UniProtKB/TrEMBL annotation:
Reaction(s) catalysed by this chain's protein: 4-maleylacetoacetate = 4-fumarylacetoacetate; RX + glutathione = an S-substituted glutathione + a halide anion + H(+)
Single GO term (MF): maleylacetoacetate isomerase activity
Full protein name: Maleylacetoacetate isomerase
Coiled coil regions in record: none
GO biological process: glutathione metabolic process; L-phenylalanine catabolic process; L-tyrosine catabolic process
UniProt source species: Dicrurus megarhynchus
Any one cellular-component term (Gene Ontology): mitochondrion
Classification via InterPro entries: Glutathione-S-Trfase_C-like (IPR010987), Glutathione-S-Trfase_C_sf (IPR036282), Glutathione_S-Trfase (IPR040079), Glutathione_S-Trfase_N (IPR004045), GST_C (IPR004046), GST_Zeta (IPR005955), GST_Zeta_C (IPR034330), GST_Zeta_N (IPR034333)
Gene: Gstz1
Amino acid sequence: PILYSYFRSSCSWRVRIALALKGISYDLVPVNLIKDGGQQFSAEFKALNPMQQVPALKIDGITLSQSLAIINYLEETHPNPRLLPQDPKKRAQVRMIADHIASGIQPLQNLGVLKQMGEKKMEWAQNCIASGFQALEQILQHTAGRYCVGDEVSMADLCLVPQVANAERFKVDMGPYPTITRINKALLELEAFKISHPSRQPDTPAELRA
């Protein structure tokens, strides 16, 4: 498999965690979203992913984009360890939380949107994340065990950790979100989350390396 990734992309990080958890080795091709006006806009990358976003994964003779679609494919082709619970209610809760982050928070504060916001980008990002986290904190108070849904790592957790990293980067006050903070801390102790961390990628700038 070949993963097209950017060290700081939270969507790429989700997929890196899934690959690490499932023990799938891969080659990484960095796509720098800032350099050269954004390498994702090159004709070569547009041919790979017409949405001009990372991640993209070449695997089993196909090219997939969209992090949750990629994670679902990995789940179906490499079922262990599972990232979706067997219980239908818990499975629905995992998907709900993953979608809440992947559709309801992250796209509102991603690079393309922030470019449009000009000088207000920090304030905009903080507001988008805070309103999403207020809802997420409430949801997690009903679903969480050690992790987002019960005591097993799931696709919801793969979305949570990168989003908390975004919140910290945009200086969001995490005080009002004790459940999110607690789960994030527990997940960051796991090896798959450590090795996939933005500070430990081949394309991480020297000053940001762990």
